[in-house]
Amino acid sequence: MCKEACNALEESGCFVIKCNQVSLNLHSEIYSAVQDLFNLPLEIKQQKPAHRGDWPIGRAYSYCPKHERIDTENLTTLEGAQSFTKLMWPSGNDQFCESACQR
After folding, report:
1. C-alpha–C-alpha distance, residues 56 and 41, integer Å
2. Is residue 4 part of a domain?
3. Structural domain tally of the chain?
4. 84-99 pLDDT tens trace
């Protein structure tokens, strides 16, 4: 399984884990919310400080321009989701916030 995950990352840059405990509706909501997040302008995404100082946030790398990283720690708590949402969307994004902290 580990080798398959590494191959998927090397070939596609991502992989999907299929889990029957997550409804298709929740999966679709979260996928849509993540698309909204990555579609934000780079300047907005760079407002989020790294929880590890050695990793830049919301930055495309010159050696891999399609690769972008955003820290999203504590999104599973209501307070964490609200704080992150307010930072990324100052005027609000209830759909993102609600999707982020669904269980």
Report:
1. 15
2. no
3. 1
4. 889 889 998 988 888 8
